[in-house]
TrEMBL record:
GO terms for biological process: glucose metabolic process. Its cofactor is Mg(2+). Belongs to the phosphohexose mutase family. Gene3D superfamilies: Alpha-D-Glucose-1,6-Bisphosphate, subunit A, domain 3, Alpha-D-phosphohexomutase, C-terminal domain. This is phosphoglucomutase (alpha-D-glucose-1,6-bisphosphate-dependent). It comes from the Bacteria. The keyword Metal-binding applies. Residues 14-153, 184-287, 296-408 form the Alpha-D-phosphohexomutase alpha/beta/alpha domain. The keyword Iron does not apply. Signal peptide: none annotated. It catalyses: alpha-D-glucose 1-phosphate = alpha-D-glucose 6-phosphate. InterPro entries: A-D-PHexomutase_a/b/a-I (IPR005844), A-D-PHexomutase_a/b/a-I/II/III (IPR016055), A-D-PHexomutase_a/b/a-II (IPR005845), A-D-PHexomutase_a/b/a-III (IPR005846), A-D-PHexomutase_C_sf (IPR036900), A-D-PHexomutase_CS (IPR016066), Alpha-D-phosphohexomutase_SF (IPR005841), PGM (IPR045244).
Amino acid sequence: MTICTIKTTPFSDQKPGTSGLRKSVPAFQQPHYLENFVQSIFDSLDGCEGATLVLGGDGRYYNREAIQIILKMAAANGIGCILVGCGGIFSTPAASCVIRQYNALGGIILSASHNPGGPNGDFGVKYNVSNGGPAPEKVTDAIYNRTKAITEYKILEAADINLDRPGSFKMGTMEVEVMDSVVPYVELMQTLFDFDKIKDLLSSGKFRMCMDSLHAVTGPYAHALFEKYLGAPVGTVQNGTPLEDFGGGHPDPNLVYAHDLVEVMFGDNAPDFGAASDGDGDRNMILGRNFFVTPSDSLAVLTANATLVPGYKDGLAGVARSMPTSEAPDRVAAKLGIDCYETPTGWKFFGNLLDAGKATLCGEESFGTGSNHIREKDGLWAVVFWLNILAVKGTSVEEIVRDHWQEYGRNFYSRHDYEEVPSDPANELMELLRSQLQNMPGKSYGNYEVAYSDDFSYTDPIDGSVSQKQGIRIGFTDGSRIIFRLSGTGTKGATLRLYVESYEPDASKHHVETQEALSPLIQLAEEIAHIKKFTGRDKPTVIT
């Protein structure tokens, strides 16, 4: 076997976003494109020679080919051992689990998360560090700087590895272990949750659930968890076979894209509980019978009921949420007497809090929830957490949430996404808002008076690092908020996200439909930001 050194030139567009480098499949298929970025990862890592890495992805188109390329490059760069998922499959939470369990240096996760797949879809490469979490900015900055100066990469001349069965292989001097990534993940879940109590619920014949994996990575994990270990009937998991194009669907667990599940849960004779997960398995949507649980409310409910679950029976050190996530968890934290941290969007910002023991549960409004069991958000973990609470309480999803509102008040909350907006007008909208911020406090808009307005900046309480321009916040004296942010997860143009929140303590008003309750603030957002003018859209692409 021969190590080849291939001459190359930099690409100008390899700056990682909040979750690694995401581009279209054709972009990654350009000669040297994937190789340049992967070599830049290896060049940026201290002590990678002889180290163990985890490798796998969500099964989308180009996943298998990319794995074979990365294995050969890893061997050429002196990596000691690669743990790769059988079939190339590794959910993001399972990868974090295995990185931590095997004390690996880190892992390379191949996914574009909730973005569409297929030959003309999206692909992504993300590096996770030794704690199992996404690389912090100092690491991604080092990788990016290397992509701008790279002149060559190394790759081993070798045959492809058989990924379709567990086994041990040699590639040059590097060990390759093809492993069933489902097993360590299920074992971790068994240490956290009361499987016997959940199994009694799911096998009782009195409780039905539906799990939609959207033809993405969690299919094998969900089949094992729910139908094998927790006693749910075969057929509980739908769309459970990972497909390279996700069956032509959009693997984003929300009310628009998880339409099969929504039809079931809002149809006749609906199950008691429904859930969906995304492309790489780190997001979740929770539904009751004819009832949708917002991710913000889900985090608040899990926080309020955590001691019902064995892994969290001793209470929580704290809870953390991303800035655009509603303030519902803050109210629970205040009552429990624990800290609630507000961070920028991106799971890497939770890592320091979790490692320092400052927070136990974390969540984002973008359907991501997790805890200190790994360093990623974890879709199936959230589903099992909900099942554990339901098994203990013996009530419905809707009753749990409405009882929660009765105790803490309701944070009406919605996110409006304007997808694939041309980048220039999207940035002009944000700059217009920034120019108004200084003069907003004290200003009245109808019944709303501005209490504060800023471009959110975060100083990490653990390492002191500062992250600026993380989203524009306009907060009002009644506790309402409007937030504007450009997302870093898309691959075409820009995604403008508008977040709208209004707090309602009066239980007699909790039944009002969300968009109706928020309509004055939605109109106010248009008045302030001129969204229709800058986006050219009369309405959002997705409302959640």
